[in-house]
Design brief:
- There is one protein chain.
- The chain is mainly β.
- It contains 3 helices and 22 strands.
- The strands form 3 sheets. Strands 7-8-9-10-22-19-18-13-16 form a 9-stranded antiparallel β-sheet, with no helix packed on it.
- A hairpin with a 2-residue loop joins strand 1 and strand 2.
- The longest helix is centred in the first third of the chain and has 8 residues.
- The chain is globular, with a radius of gyration of 18 Å.
- Bound molecules: 6-O-phosphono-beta-D-tagatofuranose.
Length: about 290
């Protein structure tokens, strides 16, 4: 569909507007009466920008590449059906796939909502031999609610991992703390998967960090240098959190990230990573995250 066709079919005056994010990359802008705005790329079904109370809440790399087959660095990449490295491309193929618009609505007094869809393709079947239907439901109001529905439309069972790889914009990585993970089992990917118990309930990020918090509490917060919350994250039916920042070392190996950009974001990613979700034919699984800007 062209931008004009998308706007004719789903556009809604101010609240829902399709546009070319960059040539060949259609996106949609959602606007809520609270003043919050959301920008979503149909490529990857990826939230690129979330404006709340006048401030951009997500990090998008100034070097993000918009080219097919390449993941866009920043916003909220959708990791499915695989987390990390494995038989599929890193973090799976959803974030480099073309999503379709299944519905879009702006109900008075409610949020502005768009539902994006992804099903198997000849390309995905070559990588992952399962038929599936993904629905990503994005609801914008004063907060941002994201729901992911995975359906097994095949005749065989399959299992998958999924994760919402949120890049939270922060004023200075060295000042923020992650609140709410004390006592959680944590796997450190940078020390060979060593598993410990997180002692801190006000966790700083002071070096390259890549940690998986297992069966983590559903509600956590990111606080600023004064200890005041700047984000609240509530996950639903997502067992784990991944905490990531590339710091200086890893940034040097990421062509789509400026050398000091690591200072402006922290990734706190709700997902099902350690335990895969298994679906029998016809079954579906719904998970979600609610992001509250403070
Ligand atoms: O966020 C956890 C992680 O798996 C890290 O290991 C790092 O690779 C990050 O995802 C970004 O991955 P990407 O493929 O987007 O460069």
């Amino acid at each position: 569909m062209s931008i004009d066709e998308l706007n004719q079919r789903w556009g809604n005056r101010r609240e829902i507007e399709f546009f070319w994010r960059t040539p060949g990359f259609p996106a949609v802008k959602l606007r809520h009466t609270s003043g919050s705005e959301l920008e979503v790329s149909l490529y990857g079904g990826q939230v690129l920008s979330w404006l709340a109370e006048g401030r951009e809440r997500l990090f998008l790399s100034e070097r993000a590449e918009f080219s097919r087959g390449k993941a866009i660095r920043g916003g909220i990449p959708l990791v499915f059906p695989q987390f990390g490295s494995g038989p599929l491309p890193a973090h799976g193929f959803a974030r480099t796939s073309e999503f379709s618009v299944l519905s879009a609505s702006a109900e008075r007094g409610c949020g502005v909502q768009i539902v994006l869809g992804l099903v198997e393709s000849p390309e995905s079947l070559k990588l992952w031999r399962h038929k599936f239907a993904l629905r990503l439901v994005l609801s914008l109001a004063e907060d941002l609610y994201m729901e992911l529905v995975v359906e097994n439309t095949d005749s065989e069972p399959f299992e998958f991992q999924s994760l919402l790889h949120t890049y939270f914009a922060v004023p200075e990585i060295g000042e923020i703390r992650v609140r709410g993970l004390a006592g959680t089992r944590v796997v450190d990917f940078l020390s060979g998967g060593r598993e410990t118990i997180e002692p801190s309930n006000d966790l700083p990020v002071t070096k390259q960090t890549d940690q998986l918090y297992l069966e983590a509490p559903d509600c956590v917060a990111i606080t600023d240098g004064e200890g005041a919350p700047i984000f609240e994250i509530e996950k639903e039916r997502l067992a784990d959190f991944v905490l990531w920042n590339p710091w200086i070392e890893k940034s040097a190996h990421l062509a789509d990230l400026a050398p000091n950009a690591y200072r402006g974001f922290v990734c706190l990613e709700a997902g099902n990573v350690r335990s895969k979700i298994s679906l029998a034919p016809g079954e579906s699984y719904t998970s979600a995250q609610r992001l509250r800007p403070i």
